[in-house]
Amino acid sequence: MSTTEPAFTPEDNARIIRRVFDEFVNQGDFSVVDEIYAPDMVDHQPLPGAPDGPEGVRYTIAGLRQGFPDLHVTIEALSAHADYVVIHNTWRGTFTGEFLSMDPTGERIEFRGVVVWRLANGLITERWGIGVESAMLEALGLGWLMSGALARKGRRRGGGTDLADLAAAAAALTGTDRP
């Protein structure tokens, strides 16, 4: 009798990633985090101030849901290969709550991005957002922050841009307390 862990197929991994959006992001069921994220998972593009691991995932989605209470993410395309799942998705929501120290505008936003996930033994171990941060800033009217030297100055470990640094730079450039 074998004591090895059951192998997870790409289809199993795809189902796990669908749960991220169907149950956690879109419905706000935070209990899903404990079921599908590894304790040492790494989110390469968390919200500024997010702790490491699953608590950081909770922090990031809680921050997004605070700023955009009607947040809904649609998976437009999904591809699963071995331990990786890649999705192209559309994020939609109305900016009615505070987000990254910005006051709400009441505007409805929509942006797209690609997210790459790595899984091991049925748990999410890593997440990379590609274009998600820049598309979100563009939708919030702050796309200019991602261009030129300002964006290079805001680069951080993991290849993402620290949104808090960009927001502070925007405030400095515009002479306001908030972007």
Automatic annotation (TrEMBL):
InterPro entries: Cyclase_SnoaL-like (IPR009959), NTF2-like_dom_sf (IPR032710)
Superkingdom assignment: Bacteria
SUPFAM superfamilies: NTF2-like
Example GO biological process: polyketide metabolic process
Protein name, as recorded: Ester cyclase
Organism, as annotated: Nocardia aurantiaca
